Amino acid sequence: MHIARNDVPTKIKIPGATARQILDFGDATGYGKIAGEYFSLGAGTDIAPLLKGLEDDLCQSPHWGYLMQGEVTVTYKDGTEETVAGGDLFYWPPGHTVRVGKDAEIILFSPQVEHCAVVHHLQKQLGS
Q1: Which of 36, 54, 71, 76 could form a disulfide with 101 if both were Cys (CB 3.0 to 4.6 A apart)?
Q2: What is the distance between the alpha carbons of residues 125 and 24, in angstroms, rounded to a whole number?
């Protein structure tokens, strides 16, 4: 699920301030502490090969975030894809992979236990 900033409903608009809010933007039920993350990914990056060995060979952590710039395509377990562009808010449920179409700067909020497991797996795959 993703949404462009201007498509998020305006709740308050006064001179000098605009507040936008979208409800039901993912579900954090059952997750503990959240990690704040910043990713810089170059065009052509495809993490699918690095996810081999995880459940369904996919990232099993949900993410809420904001794509500051660039373009990222997310592929889900069922094969559906969606492309997120700079300025979009997004929610990626567990069971996905990511490839980068244009250099991307991403802010993520992820359950730290689940996403640390994925990051550690990626580090092992990269030999670091």
Answers
A1: 71
A2: 35
Give the count of beta carbons closer than 10 Å to the beta carbon of residue 6: 8
- Tokens 């990222």 label which residue? 72
DSSP annotation of 124 reads H
Architecture field, domain 33-126: Sandwich (2.60)
Whole-angstrom distance, CA of residue 42 vs CA of residue 4 = 22
| Maximal C-alpha separation, the chain | 53
Token pair in block for residue 4: 């462009």
Model confidence, pTM: 0.86
pLDDT tens for each residue of the chain, 128 residues long: 788 888 888 988 888 878 888 888 888 888 888 888 999 999 999 999 999 999 999 999 999 999 999 999 999 999 999 999 999 999 999 999 999 999 999 999 999 899 989 999 989 988 87
CB-count exposure of residue 110 (10 Å: 0-12, 13-18, 19+)? buried
